[in-house]
C-alpha cells in the first residue's frame, strides 16, 4: 500500500468506529500526536476516536484531497455529524516511517451556516 492508501484506510476505519483495528494495522509503537485536547500517547487518542464513533455513529466522512510528500501525507476532509447537524473541515497530517504512522497532527474547524467566502471550504 502507498502512504496515501494507508492514511485513507486509517481514517476510514477510525470514522467507522474501528479505531482499534486502524491503530493495530498502521500505527508504529513510537507513535505520538499533537491533538491539543488529548494526551500525546496512542492509547488516549485511540480511545477518543472510539468514543467519537459511539457518539456520532452516522457521521459522514469524505476525503476531499490528499497530498503526499516523501514521508508526509496531508488529508483534507469533510465530516458531517448527524447528531447535532454540524459540518467540519478537518486536516490530518501524517508522518510515516517504514510504512507505519509515527506522528499525527489534526486540526478541525466548524463550517459556518452562513459562510461568507464564495469559494466555500471544500
Can you tag this structure with a few keywords?
single chain; 122 residues; alpha+beta; 5-stranded mixed sheet; globular
Topology (SSEs and partners):
Elements: H1 3-15, H2 19-26, E1 27-33, H3 42-55, E2 60-69, E3 72-81, E4 86-97, E5 100-110
Parallel strand pairs: 1-5
Antiparallel strand pairs: 2-3, 3-4, 4-5
Helix content: 25-40%
Return residue spans where pLDDT drops below 50 for at least 5 consecutive residues.
Answer: none
Average residue pLDDT: 95
Measured by DSSP, the beta-strand proportion falls in 35-45%
Spatial shape:
globular
For the largest beta sheet, what order do the strands appear in spatially? 1-5-4-3-2
- One letter per element, helices H and strands E, the order comes to HHEHEEEE
